[in-house]
Amino acid sequence: MAPHDGEPLRAFIPRAIDSFMPGLIPTMEQRLGTTIEATFELNPIIPQRVLAGEPFDLGITNPWYLPKLIDHGLVSPSGHRAFGRVALAIAGREPMVEGPETSPAGIIALLRRANSIAYTAEGTSGRTFLDAIARLGVGREIEARLVPMGIGQSPSRAAAEGKVDLAIAPLTTVAVAPSLNVLALFPSDLGADIDMSVFLAAHRHEGSLASKALDFLTDPGLDPLLRNYGLVRP
Questions:
Q1: Which CATH class is domain 88-190?
Q2: pTM for this predicted structure
Q3: How far apart, in whole angstroms, are the C-alpha atoms of residue 170 and residue 34?
Q4: For 41, which of 45, 66, 128, 144 could close a Cys bridge (C-beta 3.0–4.6 Å)?
Q5: Would you place residue 2 in the very low, low, confident or very high pLDDT band (cuts 50, 70, 90)?
Q6: Collapsing DSSP states into helix, strand and coil, what is residue 53?
């Protein structure tokens, strides 16, 4: 059921964008005149929680999960829009000489030099990374040096603390990580970009507060801010 008037909007938000969403939520609350109860989760966990019947009004996740949620009557067929795209990044403490490496040859060389490479095993970024290194032909070569991390663990923090050489994570995560440099960005033609969409619960109609929140999040006026954090609009 829809929440009663005065109850907070319940939102599922990917951890991939927790670098800027906590700061953006107060502005959204002021604009909408309500409070937002945000739950931050890994992208693949969000559709699982929706399918499990957890109450929500608004969410952001990867677009390929939406057809199933729509088919189950949990998400509005007309209530979803593209939110943005984030590059998959490689970060570490070593200094950058010029800028992030973007060539396949340069990325392969960077991965080969590392003794340990951390990634989020259950997240979209981790799955995307494994697919990308398979396409680059180095998956088996560097397999023994990969450090899969579980829910609640941070590859970026592990790299910043010197526990691993490299962290694999969305650009939105590593671009603001202290003590880390973005050493490489996987090119788009490797299929390594991480797309996200905003979606409404099936019970939220056009003109509702949740619908207005969707309008706020997809407003082009936010584009410069989001770009600063590594998210670009489609």
A1: alpha beta
A2: 0.91
A3: 30
A4: 45
A5: very low
A6: coil
